[in-house]
Amino acid sequence: MPVSGVVISCLVGCSEAVSGRIAAFDGVEVHGVLPDNQIVAVIEADTVDAEVKLVSQLHEVEDVVSVRLAYHNFEDL
Amino acid sequence: MALSRREFLKASAAAVAFAAAGASVLNPKVSEAGDAGIKWGKAPCRFCGTGCGVLVGVKGGKIVATKGDPAAPVNRGLNCIKGYFLSKVLYGKDRLTKPLIRKGDKMVEASWDEAMTLIASKFKESIAKHGPDSVAMYGSGQWTVFEGYAALKLFKGGIGTNNIEPNARLCMASAVTGFMTTFASDEPMGCYDDLDLGDTYFLWGANMAECHPVLFSRMIDNRLKNPDVRIIDFGTRRTRTSQMADQYVRFNPQTDLALLNAIAHVIIKEKLYDEKFIKKHVVFKKGKENIGYGLEDKFKFTDDPKPISFDDYKKFLEKYTPEYASKLSGVPAAKIVELARLYADKKRKVNSLWTMGFNQHVRGTWVNNLVYNVHLLTGKISRPGENPMSLTGQPSACGTAREVGTFTHRLPADMVVTNPEHRAKAAEIWGIDVKRIPDKPTYNATEMFRALDRGDIKVLWSQVTNPFQSLPHLNRYRKGARKGDGRFVIVSDIYPTKSTEVADVILPSASWVEKEGFFGNAERRGQQWFKMVDAPGEAKSDLWQTMELARRLGHGNLFPYKYAEKEIFEEYRKFTVGGKDLAPYEAYVKARGLRWPVVNGKETLWRYAEGHDPYVKAGEGVKFYKNKKDDGRAVIWARPYEPAAESPDKQYPFWLCTGRVLEHWHTGTMTGRVPEIKRAYPAAVCEMHPDDAKRMGIKNLQKVKITSRRGTIILPVDLNGRGKAEKGNIFVAFFDETKLINELCIDAYCPISGEPDYKKCAVKVEKA
Amino acid sequence: MDSSTKHSGITRRRFLKDGVLLPLALAAAGGGVSTLFLRRADARGFYLRPPGALEEGNFLAACIKCGKCAQACPYNSIRMSGAEAGVAIGTPHIIARETPCYLCPDLPCAKACPSGALDRKLEDVEKVRMGTAVIVDRENCLSLRGLRCEVCYRQCPLIDKAITILPRHNQRTGVHSIMEPVIHHDKCVGCGICENACVRDKPVIVVMKSPPEQKDYYEF
Questions:
Q1: B243 tagged catalytic
Q2: For B173-393+621-638, which CATH class?
Q3: Computed over its alpha carbons, how large is the radius of gyration of chain C?
Q4: Which has fewest Cβ within 10 Å: B190, B278, B451, B619?
Q5: At residue B430, does pLDDT exceed 80?
Q6: Where does the pLDDT of residue B5 fall: very low under 50, low under 70, confident under 90, or very high at 90 and above?
Q7: CATH 3.40.228.10 spans which residues of chain B?
Q8: pLDDT of B339 strictly over 80
């Protein structure tokens, strides 16, 4: 079951709104909204495929500029 | 430990992501306060009885910095780690800022008027229904002199009850009765200068390295300068003090009584005593024996001193051969002889220093007497550089509790309520009818809380202390406070504590430099400070609180002050003339403290000593002038060895000793709120001897269950810590409010001083 | 290993191809990225490894980054390093200032190591050599300024062995002694409890890489 830490960059001034939007996804936990339009989140999914899908969906969220992976673990738990 | 692997991964994921995002969550940038615009004022440190001077830096109405006061003679700019963090102790997030009144299980915010109206009504109701002895004040050696004096005056001179006690009963009472029975005047003859001037230091039950840190570094410096200096640490636990001492002499708990008698035995047998000094300055007495342990409620004891001769005393000591004492104490007989000779060595300037090992002792008064015996036999007393010196724990245990006399039996300046002349003097100064002051002492601290438990005391007000963490046999008294049936507990404090938990009303207090104050330290040094910052929210000084209750009870006429602090001081000063003289208030405003008696503007370094003490006449040399009853002589007491109240047995095979650590102050309510100190020493541990642990299959850091006849606690074991328990002993510090070790302690006390023994009870230890 | 593991091995490549940044690339590109928890250790070019770790080069070769040591640690002292660690990504280390090694007598972390990166045969905690404590900022050390602090000494699990107190005269006050904590490199295990306990904002005593042994024949 993969667990990832991601950094999401948002359009200027939109990080609060984006954090609300992405928190609505199943398997996404927002851990912090930083002052420089970045959001730190942890992603959990049942399979890596599901996780990839989830990340792709995050890319599509309004006002999101980029999603960067900072940490990834995909061993069986 | 159950941080799941999954949580671990998630935490790591988040942390690395934060790192990648360039955020510093763990080190938030703190804006640095500039030095500019800081106003500095002087105050003594808020913590122990050493009385270090500090400079307090204030900016924008807040304490922004503190530093050791280079002009303060005690510490010359130094502090220990508690003093270093003084600026943070008042600013914990959970400072109490509003009065709180219990409504069912909740504490509800209230106005001062509501709270004081409620308190006054409870006092009035209880006094009307059950008499004045149904209300009580439990105060503190951390009270300022003004606060203690006002409480004493209100209770003894206004309400008409002797139901006032300080927490100093739990720490210094045996020192007081020791001084009173031997010299008829409380407090040491010597001062801290003896730490620089002496060359031989016997420590008894004192972990000075941790509990009087700045004084300890002073004594160690003396040894650095003078390689002849010897430090001998008598103890039942190997401490940081033992580590730096020249000799550590381990003895079995309670056998200090036998050891001191054996030392006297050797001094007499080998004729090492100072015959001239004894003839001129000493009388001998014997008191009652088999005096009990105060374990029963309403325990009463009155000693019956009988004069004896020097020969009688010698006969009494015959039994205490080094061999006999060795059998009891575990100290080799030859060592006892060697140390007795060192005590008596005419070329040596000998000091004895002690703290809670002596005072928190079911024979605390006796063991204080016995150490004076040795100094009186050898004449090593009231001389620069050689004195017996009782070190104090609290910043104003001396200044407030002992000098003002906030004990049930006391009045200011060595006076007692049982003496009609003393009552008359107090009544005169207070401008009241002498009949208002009751002539019988009521309860010592332990008995006071027993009375609350029984319901004999209904209303109890605690100020500047935390009895529901610090009392022995804590379970009983914590339960007693919440038994209902008219019981009403008021707690004034600056933070929520184990005591506010059981309170019916919590009053938010101002602390330290949030009010004007005056403390007296262990060397008779009185130190004054001004208010420098406002207390947070609606917090008010305990002095204001007491006087407000007085006003509401119709005793406002006792406190007709405009500038209460100064006027109280000047009024109190009238009591002190004739041996314990304080200087006018203004003198303390200017000075970095003055040691009483202060006569004609001159402080006194050595009491009872010609050329130093203004009350000793030329040609007298030494004069114990306060003991008028015995013609200005001190008393050598024949006090035997008697066992502890509870000793280890098959079922409870370990001695439990409790105490302090350098980082934390008492119950940790202040130091526990300084994050740096909390990190340095977060939680209590159980010190145990590695051999005992090995025998029981206990490994370092493993949790153990400690059980006494009164309670149980679970703690990790520390086999190689700062303190090293002897075989058959364990030690636990009492600061940790999540681990109430005092639930295990026995509420046995010294029948003469009323001070409980926190150093000895029997426990068993099991793997948890 | 079951089939899903194999499967994830393949999908992982796809995952990375899908445009999410590779951790190592992030580390390489992260010139401006401040790394939060490895910074202090990183600045010293030194990672505090769990007890019993092989010499760093061998350790990196042997460690299979399984995290078993971290799982075994009852205090959560051991963490797996992230992207900033470069080639050492995923290896266990201890950030003493956050949670030091408390030196469990049975060394469960070393026992848990399947690869030999940590010495499973290590029994005596006093033989552990993770690093060596050093007072790096003497000016800011309270004890060296004469204050009675010495927290590092009193909290040292090898008190009086790894750290001792050397009292010396305080010339400024004239009557007090400075209680200097002295670290003995032959005894210090590098657990980092002193670094953790130091009361200054920035610890003045920190664990560093143990200096190499240098032999001579002088007795002092």
A1: no
A2: alpha beta
A3: 21
A4: B619
A5: yes
A6: low
A7: 173-393+621-638
A8: yes
| pLDDT tens profile C109-149 | 999 999 999 999 999 999 999 999 999 999 999 999 999 99
The CATH classification of domain B100-170+395-595, taken from the options 3.60.10.10, 3.90.180.10, 2.60.40.3080, 3.40.50.740: 3.40.50.740
ipTM score for this prediction: 0.91
Distance CA C185, CA C135 (A): 12
pLDDT tops 50 at residue B729: yes
Q: Which residue of A has its CA nearest to B8?
A: A3
Give me the mean pLDDT over the B107-122 stretch: 98
Go through B26-37 and write b for each residue having 16 or more CB atoms within 10 A of its CB, e for each that does not. eeeeeeeeeeee
- Ordered by where they begin, the domains of chain C are 40-127 (3.30.70.20), 131-210 (3.30.70.20)
Percent of chain C with pLDDT over 70: 80
- B287, B397 contact by CB (below 8 A): no
Chains contacting C with at least 3 CB pairs below 8 Å?
A, B
For residue B4, pLDDT over 70 is answered with no
B82 part of the active site: yes
Between CA B210 and CA C165 the distance in angstroms is: 14
Q: Is B393 a catalytic residue?
A: yes
Q: Are C97 and C195 in contact (CB under 8 A)?
A: yes
Residue in B82, B515, B626, B724 annotated catalytic: B82
B356 included as an active-site residue: yes
CA dist., res. B65 & res. B43, Å (int): 13
What contacts A41, CB < 8 A, 6 or more positions away? A5, A6, A8, A22, A28, A29, A30, A31, B17
Cβ separation of A2 and C8 shorter than 8 Å?
yes
Residue C83 has pLDDT above 80, yes or no: no
- Compute the residue count for chain C: 220
Task: Give pLDDT, residue C22.
Answer: 39
CB contact (8 A) between residue B680 and residue C198: yes
Q: How far apart are CA A45 and CA B111, in angstroms?
A: 54
CB-nearest to B25 from A29, A32, A38 is A32
Q: Quick check: C155 contacting B, CB < 8 Å?
A: yes
Whole-number pLDDT of residue B29: 33
Active site residue B469: no
Asked whether residue C35 carries a pLDDT value surpassing 70, the answer given is no
CB of A68 less than 8 A from some CB of B: yes
CATH 2.40.40.20 positions along chain B are 654-767
Backbone angles phi and psi of B545, in degrees to 5: -60, -45
**Nearby residues of A26 by Cβ (< 8 Å), 6 or more positions away:** none
Residue C16 pLDDT class (50, 70, 90 cuts)? very low
Give the per-residue pLDDT at C24. 36
Query: Quick check: B728 contacting C, CB < 8 Å?
Result: no
Residues B701, C167: C-beta atoms closer than 8 Å: no
Domain B654-767: give its CATH code.
Answer: 2.40.40.20
Residue A74 confidence class, pLDDT cut points 50, 70, 90: low
The model's confidence at residue A57, banded by pLDDT at 50, 70 and 90, is: confident
Residues 6+ apart with CB under 8 A from A11: A37, A63, A64, A65
> Which residues in chain B touch residue C165, judged by CB atoms under 8 angstroms apart?
243-244
SS (H, E, C) chain C: CCHHHHHHHHHHHHHHHCCCCCHHHHHHHHHHCCCCCCHHHHHCCCCECCCCECCHHHHHHHCCCCCHHHHHCCCCCEEECCHHHHHHCCCEEECCCCCCCCCCCCCHHHHHCCCCCECCCCCCHHHCCCCEEEECCHHHCCHHHCCECCHHHHHCCCECCCEEEEEEECCCCCCCEEEEEEECCCCCCCCCHHHHHCCCCCCCEEEECCCCCCCCCCCC
Average pLDDT over residues B385-399: 96
